[in-house]
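Protocol step 6 of 9: fold each sequence in the batch and record its C-alpha cells directly after the sequence line. For illustration, a two-sequence batch is reproduced in full.

Sequence one:
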Amino acid sequence: MQFHEVKYDRAQPVDSYGPGFFRVAGEVIQGAILVTEDTVISWEGPDDLAPLLALAGKIDVLFYGTGADPAHPPADLRKALEDVGIGIEAMASAPACRTYNVLVSEGRRIALAALPV
C-alpha cells in the first residue's frame, strides 16, 4: 500500500481533540468550535446561529459535531441552515473532525461546528 501526504494548502485542519478542547492548526481552543477553510473561532453552541448563517453562499455543507455521542441537530438549527442553502450533517464530534479534514483537503466548500467530547 502506498501512502500519500495530505496537503491542506491554506485550509486549517483539526489536529486533535480531547475532553473539552480542540487543537486546530496548532492552536488549542477550549469548548465548542467553528472551523472553516480559513477561520477558527470559539462557538457558543447550537443556539449561536449568527456565525453559521454568515457562511451562506460560502459553504455547501456544515458538519455538526454533537460531542461524544451521535445525536440529531436541533430542528431550528437544521431549518435555519437549510433556509439559507446550507446542508447539515450531524455526527459525533470525533468522526465529524475526521470527515472535515478529509473533505477540506480536497478543497470542498465545508465547515465544522463541533461540541467538545
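Sequence two, same batch, same settings:
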Amino acid sequence: MNAVNIAGLWCLEESFAMRMWGIVEPRLKAGKEPFAPAMVAGHPARTIQATLQTAGKSILAGTIEYYQYVVNAYTVEGVCVIPVMGTLTRYGLCSWGYEDLAGLLAVADGQESVKAVVLRIDSPGGAVDGVKVLADAVRAVKKPVVVWTNFCASAAYFVASQAREIWVEEQTLYAVGSIGTLMVYTDQSEALKKAGLKVEIMRASESTDKSRMNGTEPLPDETRAEIQGILDASQKEFAGYVRRGRAGLLTSDEWKTAKMYGVRDAIRIGLADQKGTLRQAIQRAAQLAA
C-alpha cells in the first residue's frame, strides 16, 4: 500500500472523490496507511496468487508468464474478459493497475487462442498518472476490444473511449461520464492556528520551492497558478483522447463539463454505443472478430 500515491491529479467522479478523501484524510492524520487492508482484499491478483501457490506454481506477478496465465484463465470461447474494477492507479489498488492491465492486453493481443477482448469496467476513475499507458494499450490492440460497463467514470472512461465499442448495462442510475480532472487540497493553517499550534517548515537555503503544497502553510498564488495550469493541460489531453477514440460518434460537446449521464443520454451524445448485458457484449466482441 505504500506504493499508492493519493496525492496529485485525479480523474475521479466528484462525489466518489469526496467520499474517498473522507476515508483517507483521517487515516493519514492518525499516522495510518491511506486505505485499510479490507478495502483491497478483493484484488483479483490476490486470488490468482493463492491459486498459483495451491497448484505449486511459482509465477511472479507482473511477468509475461503471469500475464499469460491470467489471460488464459479469463478467456472463454476465444473472448478474454478482463475486469477493470474500483479506483484505478498505476500499480493497482482495488484491481490491477494501469501497467498490469496494459500488460494483459498486450499478451491477449498476441495469444492465438484469444480472438477478442472485453473490458468489464466498474470504476469511478482514478489517478492521472499512468492512465495514458492503458488508454494507448487499448487502442494498440489489433483484435476487437469491446467495453461493457455498469459504471464508467472519469479515468475509466479515458480508457474505455479507445475501445471499438462501449456497451452499457440497462439501469436508471448515472453510468457514464465525469470527463474531468481535479486535485484535492486541504489548507489546515487556520485550523492549526485555532488549535494554538504554530507549525514552521524549515527549508534549506536553496530549497525555496520545496513542498510548497503541504497543507500546513497557505497555498502560494504562484503554486496555485501552476496547479491550475497542470489541471487544464490534463483536461485538454483527456478531451483529446475522447474525441479521437469516439471520432464520428459524438453528437455534442456537452460532456466536457464533466457531467455524469444515464444510459440513454450517454448513447444519445455518443459516449456509448449500445445498452445490453455482459453476455451480449461478449457475443458482440466475438462477432467483430469473425
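Proceed to step 7 once all outputs are recorded. Observation for sequence two: The first strand starts at residue 10 and ends at 12.
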